[in-house]
Amino acid sequence: MMTDIPRPDTDKASGISEPDSRLDTSFDLSGYLEAKREILESHLRKIIGRLDSTRELARAMEYSLMAGGKRLRPILAMASAEAVGGDFRLALPAACAIEMIHTYSLIHDDLPAMDNDDLRRGIPTCHRAFSQATAVLAGDALLTHAFSLLGDPWEIFNPSPEKSVLLELVAKISQAAGPLGMVEGQMMDMKAPSITKAWESSYPDENICPDGERLSILKELHALKTGRMISVSVEAGAISAGCSAKQMELLSLYSVNIGLAFQVTDDILNVEGDPAVMGKAAGSDALNRKLTFPALMGLGASREFARDLIQGAISSLDTFKGRADPLKAIAQYILRRNR
Ligand code: GRG
């Protein structure tokens, strides 16, 4: 464990060891998640149901898309639409598209050329259940079909946002998923695979990359790889429901904080999570000597960092009052999640 790194600035800003009353609400999150998950999945089933189920490609897409998962991103989109006082159903085209893009990224991430995982969402990964070639194509098809839905949502989604809003969603979501977001983050992840190895291009001598710099690399990597898709989920829901510029500013703050916190908790779960609960293997980061928050900061400081980020996220929603209770409760859930 490396201990001589500077603590994140945010650690100084608040008494992170003090309990924060804003983290306690009586909101029924599990009822909310269940209701929204059901609505989302009925729309995903409609989308997949329009494909020819006798084709292997459609079956592979359905296999991974309908395998469960927390549905965090689409539920964030719906909750965000509600937070700005809108109809959550307007967020459904973006919510479904984002879940399809997220599923594509998991299918590709699990491939032997990347993480080479056998288990995802509690079942064999797509390439294990089908073949590597089918898994590549199922991912490609989910990605492209997501944008085809945003371009032409009317058969499945009623109500739908108007055309100018759909165009804005296409721009925002593709930016978050592509070379300015998730795909570049994945690339950075591949280039910074080891806790001992220095950042390849800048530091050929592995001893000269200071820990503080590793931490900022790690934050940037995850802001792109995981954070951008989480952020855009919140933003897309608000855009779909016609939010104001001020609402968007505050929701963006919330979304950036929960996006990073999500990755910190993911790293923590990789150390101490239960594979049976998570539906995927644990311990792989240490095995691969990956650059992670616990590896750089230690488990305790990582937990504190995540807690501080979540407190920041919740504070940014103060002016939304009760309409943002679902978003606040989801932020708490990110901190406490066990899968
Ligand atoms: C292959 C282009 C490409 C990108 C892959 C997001 C990503 C980039 C890879 C996923 C690898 C990973 C496990 C990242 C950690 C955080 C994360 C995104 C976890 C999976 O998301 P969850 O926990 O999964 O929301 P469920 O199954 O609940 O949807």
Shape category: globular
Strand content: under 5%
**By CATH's scheme, which homologous superfamily applies?**
Farnesyl Diphosphate Synthase
Architecture, CATH level 2? Orthogonal Bundle
In spatial order, strands of the major sheet run 1-2
Number of structural domains: 1
Could you give the count of β-strands? Answer: 2
Helix content class: 55-70%
Features:
two-stranded antiparallel sheet; 16 helices; disordered N terminus; 2 strands; Farnesyl Diphosphate Synthase; single chain; mainly alpha; binds geranylgeranyl diphosphate; 339 residues
Please, could you describe this protein's structure?
- With 339 residues, the protein is mostly helical.
- The chain has one domain (25-336): Farnesyl Diphosphate Synthase, CATH 1.10.600.
- It is built from 16 helices and two strands.
- It has helices spanning 9-13, 29-49, 56-65, 72-83, 92-110, 126-129, 132-151, 163-177, 182-191, 211-240, 245-272, 275-278, 284-287, 293-297, 299-315, 325-336, and strands at residues 119-120, 123-124.
- The protein has a two-stranded antiparallel sheet.
- Strand 1 and strand 2 form a beta hairpin.
- The longest helix has 30 residues, at 211-240.
- It is globular, with a radius of gyration of 20 Å.
- The protein starts with 8 loop residues before the first helix and ends with a helix.
- Mean pLDDT is 87; it is low at 1-24 and 197-208.
- Bound molecules: geranylgeranyl diphosphate (GRG).
- Geranylgeranyl diphosphate (GRG) is lined by residues 69-70, 72, 102, 105-106, 108-109, 114, 121, 182-183, 186, 225-226, 263, 266.
